[in-house]
Amino acid sequence: MRDQVCTRRKNPWTVKTSRSIYDNPWIAVREHEVVTPGGGDGIYGVVGFKNVALGVLPLFSNGDTVLVGQWRFALDCYSWELPEGGGRLGGDPVEEARRELSEETGLQAGAWREILRMDLSNSVSDEQAIGYLAMDLTQGAPHPDEDESLEIRRLPFKTALRMAIQGEITDAITVAMLLRAHHMAVEGDIEPALARAMILGGGETP
Questions:
Q1: What predicted TM-score, i.e. pTM, was given to this entire model?
Q2: How many whole angstroms separate alpha carbon 153 and alpha carbon 133?
Q3: For the chain, where do the domains classified as CATH 3.90.79.10 start and end?
Q4: HSE value, Cβ hemisphere, 13 Å, CA-based, for 179
Q5: What is the pLDDT of residues 145-163, one digit of tens each?
Q6: Hey, which CATH number is domain 51-200, 3.40.50.300, 3.30.360.10, 3.40.140.10, 3.90.79.10?
């Protein structure tokens, strides 16, 4: 769908030169000399990402989900989020999402469903995200990366959605996925018993 949208329109920008400014294993920054859509000369810096961003919304049969808390270095702030991580470009995104869910929470899912694709910051980067529902869950032991210090919180989907709406959750993938899943539940695009548990608050957590 994204490629179809891109090819339907003529690109109004002209790139005269490009050069690498910075490069590491995760991102690369390039500066382009351009002619703008208005005809003037300018520069445009783009952050290129070497992974695809992956988000996972785990859903237990009683309507619970799981959030991961961690300190985000770039924001210098603590953040509650759905399980997220980077997957290899060209890899199988479902398998990469399965790995991230297991690493961060210990959860294994028997059913996966893609529900979202989005561009995360399209004025300065090419980073793309894919979001999945993970269902039919079983609990194992988490094994986070050595640079991660994570707090795991199981809570009703309804509570997580309220946190996003009230601004307690600000992570873009998490907010978008919670709203998307709620819309699916309301519109009948999720199994009725699970949708009812998500909307009404679910049952008792085991």
A1: 0.91
A2: 17
A3: 51-200
A4: 12
A5: 766 689 999 999 999 999 9
A6: 3.90.79.10
